[in-house]
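Record format v2
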Amino acid sequence: EAAVTQSPRNKVAVTGGKVTLSCNQTNNHNNMYWYRQDTGHGLRLIHYSYGAGSTEKGDIPDGYKASRPSQENFSLILELATPSQTSVYFCASGERVGQNTLYFGAGTRLSVL
Amino acid sequence: GEKVEQHESTLSVREGDSAVINCTYTDTASSYFPWYKQEAGKSLHFVIDIRSNVDRKQSQRLIVLLDKKAKRFSLHITATQPEDSAIYFCAASISNTNKVVFGTGTRLQVLP
């Protein structure tokens, strides 16, 4: 079965601090995604990647960076965390362009105080 | 860019009745429309999809309809059961891209 693992599962950060959310997939999928989930907004796409070395901006990239150093790993980086970035973050992987069934990780609950 | 609107934020039905969740999309180039389910406190998992070359697809109690002219698609859950209670997300993906855009979710409650 497809496996996407996120770490940490919970994180409390201070305003202005740096936060790194990590995602690892063992599906050998080319595509990986970072979404955030907020009440009233559903899932919003932050960054995504076509493969190792590539990152693309999603719909709400401001304040976030992404890194895809390998096929398996995709990180989301908050260089200067703000309280507005308090949310639940989901990583997902998918294998096919245009017909892309996504496999989600368990989520990371981030609180920025 | 593509936007997906999910019309019902909450929906309550009686057990055994049908539930219908409606979504619309903006980009005519969208060609793939998956649905995901999120149970309380859990992550999302795929439940059913439809591609733009068909207008109806059924998997057990789930039916997806696609109206390309109206840029609308819907999820029908027949003979609802308590375990159908969850948040359902529709999504759309444009052919030849990897971008998948989600709706805002519909919280379905199946009442006894």
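Chain B has a mean pLDDT of 94.
The two ends of chain B are 41 Å apart (CA to CA).
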